[in-house]
Design a protein that fits this description.
Number of strands: 17
Number of helices: 11
Protein name: Ornithine decarboxylase
Cofactor: pyridoxal 5'-phosphate
Bound molecules: pyridoxal-5'-phosphate
Keywords: Lyase, Pyridoxal phosphate
Structural class: alpha/beta
Distance between the termini: 28 Å
GO molecular function: ornithine decarboxylase activity
Number of domains: 2
CATH class of the largest domain: Alpha Beta
Strand content: 15-25%
CATH topology of the largest domain: TIM Barrel
Largest sheet: 9 strands, mixed
Family: Belongs to the Orn/Lys/Arg decarboxylase class-II family.
Length: about 400
């Protein structure tokens, strides 16, 4: 990767017509360390959030020693980047052949389930491989309710009474029994975690079997931008939230359990920007060379506002004007011919922005590269390395779309 101090420097040097990703390894390492330092258990980074080799390698160097994986491709990526790291197979519904690969080739011994038939499926593979069940921990994934920006319990999780039976069954078979929950993604309130911990305590009490570990999942919120029409308080620093969840765990008498967490978004969001180019300006609409089918699908759900700043093209003649540029909400239209390829939240940019300028869109490290498609023939894949991530670049034209600092502490 070519190196530049900031994404702006890369844009001005390369003058790219295609999107360019600016990766800040120092920011990634710092955000990983912030989580590792705050959390007293095992931090298993959720590979699906961003499984690029350079991300996994940077995390391993920063001290991440475990990975939450869900598929053979993720087993291989984690193994390649961090051969010594533990892998936890936390997908509740799996193919038998993948379970076999996990146990046999990757030595995985921690697996999630939310149904007795899945436990039976795993038992058949374990017996076939002549592995002792007591060497394998089956984590029962609990269903939870909360206010995550993305609510995931609609799909996975056993209701508390069902989880009790599952734990007892797992224990009877001879597996080690664990408890897990995952409250969603971009969870900005402590309540969701509080309810999940309370539910875990109830289930553990009822089940009356030995619990080997408690996995509190991911969902910790990353800092994003601000829509000036809908100001919202920034999420709490991750360290605060993690410590409060741990206090909850202690309060429910679960403090002696070994803990696991599976953060994704909060670790990787800030380390990546994408520099896109404005192809056309139509009034308050900007047509750019990226969109929801490439790097920006996570923002299309309307749940998050991405911070953005203009990088004016110095080669573009600019009309002399008396008034200072005014921050204006622009609709952002994506590169494909698809009419849904429009971002659901505006970017607040100086009204002087025009065709040929670049826009640096920050905090796209989570669920961006992993969700790119080849739709319509657009597939951004150019990378540079930068020393300073989005908010450490110079303020540009007063485009104050970033929340005040504090979200990623
Ligand atoms: C996606 C996922 C995560 C990571 O979630 P974030 O919101 O990115 O922290 C963790 N655990 C499981 C089981 C997941 O599916």
């Amino acid at each position: 990767m070519q190196r530049f101090p900031t994404a702006r420097d890369a844009a001005l040097a390369l003058r790219p017509d295609r999107p360019v990703y600016a990766f800040a390894p120092r920011t990634l390492a710092a955000d990983a360390r912030a989580f590792l330092d705050a959390f007293r258990g095992v931090t298993a980074y959720a590979v699906k959030t961003n499984g690029e080799p350079f991300v996994l390698e940077t995390l391993a160097q920063a001290g991440v020693k475990a990975f939450d994986v869900a598929s053979p491709a993720e087993f291989a990526a984690a193994r390649a980047a961090a051969p010594e790291a533990a892998q936890l197979y936390m997908h509740p519904v799996k193919a038998s052949s993948d379970i076999r690969l996990a146990l046999e080739t990757y030595g995985i011994r921690a697996i999630a389930v939310d149904h007795e038939d899945e436990a039976a499926k795993i038992l058949r593979v374990v017996r076939g491989l002549d592995i002792a069940p007591e060497d394998v921990t089956l984590f029962v994934r609990l269903a939870t309710k909360g206010h995550a920006a993305y609510e995931l319990s609609k799909k996975f999780g056993a209701a508390p009474a069902h989880a009790v039976e599952l734990l007892q069954r797992i224990d009877r078979i001879g597996f080690r029994a664990g408890l897990a929950f995952h409250v969603g993604s971009q969870v900005e309130d402590l309540d969701s975690y509080e309810r999940a911990v309370a539910s875990a305590a109830w289930v553990k009490g009822r089940a009356g079997v030995h619990i080997a570990a408690l996995d509190i999942g991911g969902g910790f919120p990353a800092p994003y931008g601000r829509d000036l029409r809908r100001p919202a308080p920034p999420p709490p620093p991750v360290g605060d939230l993690v410590r409060r969840v741990q206090t909850e765990i202690d309060g429910w008498g679960l403090g002696a359990l070994p803990l696991v967490a599976e953060p994704g978004r909060v670790v990787v969001a800030r380390c990546l920007s994408v520099v896109v180019r404005v192809l056309l300006k139509k009034g308050q609409r900007l047509y750019i060379n990226d969109g929801i089918w490439s790097s920006l699908s996570d923002s299309w759900t309307g749940k998050i506002t991405l911070p953005a700043r203009v990088i004016p093209d110095p080669a573009r003649p600019r009309p002399k004007r008396a008034a200072a540029p005014k921050l204006t909400p622009f609709r952002i239209c994506g590169a494909t011919c698809d009419s849904v390829d429009i971002l659901s939240r505006p970017f607040w940019l100086p009204d002087t922005v025009g065709a040929g300028d670049w826009i640096e869109i920050g905090h796209i490290g989570a669920y961006s590269l992993a969700l790119r498609t080849r739709f319509n023939g657009f597939y951004p894949d150019d990378f540079v390395e930068v020393e300073r991530a989005f908010e450490d670049g110079e303020p540009v034209d007063g485009a104050a779309t970033l929340e005040p600092r504090g979200g990623a502490g």
